[in-house]
Amino acid sequence: MAITNKEILDEIEKLKKKIPTANGDFILLKKTVGDLEIGQQGLKDDIKELKERLLNPDDGVIARVNRNSDFRKDSEKSGPLCKKSFEEMQDGVHELTIWRDNITKVMWLLVTGIVGLGFKVIFDWKK
Fold this sequence. Notes:
Radius of gyration: 45 Å
Structural class: mainly alpha
Number of helices: 4
Mean pLDDT: 83
Largest sheet: none
Shape: elongated
Number of strands: 0
Low-confidence stretches: none
Strand content: under 5%
Number of domains: 2
Order of helices and strands: HHHH
């Protein structure tokens, strides 16, 4: 049961026909794998950028959230600062409203006086 050279050559020819390079499939496969590698590299870069944005110790999202949480906890410990400042603003607004009302009264007095003076000048001029 010896294998002859012809049988070996026939088997080699069968294998050559099965190889994808015979009809360009291998080249297409190689190009597709190259495109996948390029796409994968792009995804790696995007993931790296996202990780930097999230985990940056100076101004990353996690650092900002932690600073915000610390500020909130500190403000809860020190008391309602916002309530005090809101009450001060209400007092300031009330004072401004009183001032505006007084200025409005003065303006009405001035306008009435000027109009009255104008009528007096006109009637005195006609006499």
